[in-house]
Structure formats: C-alpha cells, structure tokens
Amino acid sequence: MTADAGTAPEPAVERWAVRIEYDGRPFVGWQRQITGLSVQQVLEEAAGRLAAGRPVTSITAGRTDAGVHATGQVAHLDFPMGTGLTGSKVRDALNFHMKPHPVAILQAMPVDSAWNARFSANRRFYRYRIVNRRGRLALDDGRVWLVKRALDIDAMNEAARHLLGRHDFTSFRASACQAKSPLRTLDRLAVMRHGEEITIEADARSFLHHQVRNMVGTLKLVGEGTWAPERVGEALRACDRRAAGPTAPPDGLYLTGVGYDPDPFSVAC
Amino acid sequence: MTADAGTAPEPAVERWAVRIEYDGRPFVGWQRQITGLSVQQVLEEAAGRLAAGRPVTSITAGRTDAGVHATGQVAHLDFPMGTGLTGSKVRDALNFHMKPHPVAILQAMPVDSAWNARFSANRRFYRYRIVNRRGRLALDDGRVWLVKRALDIDAMNEAARHLLGRHDFTSFRASACQAKSPLRTLDRLAVMRHGEEITIEADARSFLHHQVRNMVGTLKLVGEGTWAPERVGEALRACDRRAAGPTAPPDGLYLTGVGYDPDPFSVAC
C-alpha cells in the first residue's frame, strides 16, 4: 500500500474482506430494502463510522433472504480512503459499531482491489437444520425447522443423489430468480441425523435463488414417506417449479462458508 | 389406574414425568422466586390449566440457576385429580399453555407416585459451551461463553483428570450451597473442540451448587495458560473455594439429561 515517492498515487479505495456471522431473524435479508433493516445496512453504516461518515459500499458472496442466518458469510467493503488500521482493529471497530444488532465480524483482511467477494468466490457452503420431534421449540425457535413427522434420512439421502452433478435446476428455482442460466453443478447434498436434529449440507460453486430451501422442502416429502426417492429425479427432469416440493422456511438455513482460491482468510489475524 | 368397583378409591394425585427444554435467558432460574419469572412458575401455571385451575406442584431433577439452559431437564407434576389424558395430549396441552415462554415439553409420561424426578435420578448430564474466538457473538449471545484468548484443550483435559472420581469438592462449591456433604463422585469431565467451539461435558450422580461452572472457570485458566494443569489438583485438595478459579457465566451451561433406572421416557409416546 506504500507508493514510491511522487510516482504512484495512493489507491482511491481501500478494500477489506470480512467474514461475518449473523442471526437472520430481525432482518429483511442481506440486501438493503426500504421495507426494513438489512444486514448490509448495519454493516455499511458501521463501516461509515470508520470512514469519517463517508459512505462505504459492500458486495457480498451470497445475498441471503429474510430470516436466513450465516456463520461464514463473506463480503468486501470499499472505504473511500485509507483506514490506517490493522485487521484486528477493523474487526473490533466494526463489531463495536454494529452493536446491538446480531451481526458480528469474525475476521477482516485487506485485499487487492481486483479481489471481489462475489466474483472471486468459487464455492458456497450451506447447512439446513431440522429438529424432528413432536414437542415445540424452546431453544431454537426461528433457527431450525421443526418437522413433527418422523423423517427417514436414508430415503432422503437416496433422493439427494438424484440432484448431484450438473443439471437444469428450473424445478428448484424461485420464480423471482434473476440468474441468466438455470444450470448449476451441485457437488454435495448430504443428510445426517444426530439424535432429533437432522442436518442437510449443500455445496456448489453457486446456487439459484431459493435452490437450497426448495431442495430441502422436497427432501422432506421423501423423508416423511409422501414421495418415493425416485420422484425427486423426475421433478428435476420436469424443469418446472410446480413439479418439485414446497420451499422450506428460512429459519433452518445457514450460509456456513464461501470458498476462494487463494483464501484471504487463511492467514490468522 | 382403574379401580375395582366400590373397593379402591381413585388415587388422590396423578403424577406425570416431563422432559423439558428451555432457554434460561429470560428466567430467574428453575425455582420460583419473588424477583421474577421462573421456569417452575411457567410450567406449574400451564399445568394448572389442565387441572381446572387447581394448583399443580412440581419437583425437578436439577434446580438450574438464572441464565442456565436445559435440553433434557426432568420434573414431575402432581395433578390433584385425574387428567384423563394421554402422554401426547399432556405434552401438547402444556406446550400450548406455556406459549410464548421459551419452555417446551419434549415428552410426558404417567408415573407411579413412588417415582420422584429428584430422588429417583441417579445421574445428571451437563454440557458447557465455549466459543473461542476474537469476534463477538451474533448467533449465540447469552447461549455460550465467549473466550477470546486461545484455549489449549489438551491442557484442559489433563487438568480435568485431577477432578475425576470421589472427592471433597468444597473448592468448587458455591458458598450458598445447601448440600449436607461436599463429597461427590465425578464420573466424566471431557473437553472437546469442534472448530472454534469448545464443549465440556460433565456427568455425575449429582453436583454441588455451581460445581460445573466453577470447574469450567478453573479449566479456562488452564486452557489459556495462566495455570498449569497440576494446580487444579492442588486447588481440589485445598478444600477452600478461594483456591479454585472463578465461576464461569451461566450462558454456556446446559442440563442435557437426567438418568433413571428404569427410565420412564424410554417408551416412545
């Protein structure tokens, strides 16, 4: 970041990558909206406090919907001037200014202006949490999907295998989805049970809008025995949103990580 | 429960065992207090609704402190008259009447009047959750202990071994503890790390007041390198509360289960 005396100008913008945790419950989603408070607004306003009130813009790896949580969201922030701060200072200052909103910076790293939280990302990791029991939720209301009918995870895993690989995922895509192509490559879709909690992990380079929640809502039909596992493959091939199951609620969905090569967060700070 | 015509009277009291989950944050603790709302009050008032407003009393296996959570607390409820309900109806009705408080009945089973949630219990299982990172908590504020200094779990496990077995636990007992004897047998104290989360599991027939939190607060001193592991054995042998470490906050503590032989909850309902 230092310039040869009198030759190169200071960069106009200082870019920082941040790794973020948030509770999605109080927010309208990642993206700024006039209807309510967004994670983006909380983050950008805190960053503005480090930039003497000048606006700081952010770009994120995954624009999560209202009520969706993150344990490993990634964004970059463009400060209009040098901050003169270390990574741990940026992390702590942003955390201070974001209180009391349930958003936390886990790591902040300076990055080159060519690095982009969205376009440099080559993998997204999601986890969906289901609590499978009759009793209502006391500890995790709004943070898991409570499914009262017993789910067969072997059948759900058999169904999940029909979705792995490169496909046209039109049947699992929100009608509002703005992606140009419905083609995506799903690398992992695994269903695990630990006692009464069922976890579904999904990894891909990128996902369509609502894709994870639509896959989960469909796998739930298989788990409760309403659908045979093969029907998930048929729904995929139909390329029609009406052929797949309902959208699972946002409550259980967590963006757990974003992959980069190289990973700006691999250096401890 | 049916009586031979005209011979045996109906039992005066109908006892139910319930397995309970709660978020300890809004409560003054398990036990009724004039200072605020307790889990016991929420439970007993809901039960009173099933008894036509007549008072229902409860006894619990573990009187958790303010801010302590449970995923597997057990209590029994004495109804002054027959409810005429099945286990799933009792569970669902109690859950309905406890809304919107974060208390949930997971299971309800009719038990004999000789069965007692406290005195029939032969094991208590606790889990303590630590998040070991620099960034503040967004998702689990009030539900874990945030420790910012890096913890060495191998050293913590070495220290924990000094506490296993039958000992005078005076050094790890709250001054307000009302137990007659400070002797307890600690059967398990294990420290595990999954990424940035550290879990400490403790099992014993019973614990003294604050014993788990005092053990955790002491193990944390070892984990951060302030104490050598051997010092925990010395603190134990001192039989003096001042010789051990501070009390860990209630936020990270969960009563995860209670053992009975036979277990009234082993039958699915």
Automatic annotation (TrEMBL), chains A, B:
<dbReference type="Pfam" id="PF01416">
    <property type="entry name" value="PseudoU_synth_1"/>
</dbReference>
<dbReference type="GO" id="GO:0031119">
    <property type="term" value="P:tRNA pseudouridine synthesis"/>
</dbReference>
<comment type="subunit">
    <text>Homodimer.</text>
</comment>
<keyword id="KW-0413">Isomerase</keyword>
<feature type="binding site">
    <location>
        <position position="126"/>
    </location>
    <ligand>
        <name>substrate</name>
    </ligand>
</feature>
<keyword id="KW-0819">tRNA processing</keyword>
<feature type="domain" description="Pseudouridine synthase I TruA alpha/beta">
    <location>
        <begin position="159"/>
        <end position="261"/>
    </location>
</feature>
<dbReference type="InterPro" id="IPR020103">
    <property type="entry name" value="PsdUridine_synth_cat_dom_sf"/>
</dbReference>
<protein>
    <recommendedName>
        <fullName>tRNA pseudouridine synthase A</fullName>
        <ecNumber>5.4.99.12</ecNumber>
    </recommendedName>
</protein>
<feature type="active site" description="Nucleophile">
    <location>
        <position position="65"/>
    </location>
</feature>
<dbReference type="InterPro" id="IPR020094">
    <property type="entry name" value="TruA/RsuA/RluB/E/F_N"/>
</dbReference>
<dbReference type="GO" id="GO:0160147">
    <property type="term" value="F:tRNA pseudouridine(38-40) synthase activity"/>
</dbReference>
<dbReference type="GO" id="GO:0003723">
    <property type="term" value="F:RNA binding"/>
</dbReference>
<dbReference type="InterPro" id="IPR020097">
    <property type="entry name" value="PsdUridine_synth_TruA_a/b_dom"/>
</dbReference>
<comment type="similarity">
    <text>Belongs to the tRNA pseudouridine synthase TruA family.</text>
</comment>
<dbReference type="InterPro" id="IPR001406">
    <property type="entry name" value="PsdUridine_synth_TruA"/>
</dbReference>
<dbReference type="InterPro" id="IPR020095">
    <property type="entry name" value="PsdUridine_synth_TruA_C"/>
</dbReference>
<comment type="function">
    <text>Formation of pseudouridine at positions 38, 39 and 40 in the anticodon stem and loop of transfer RNAs.</text>
</comment>
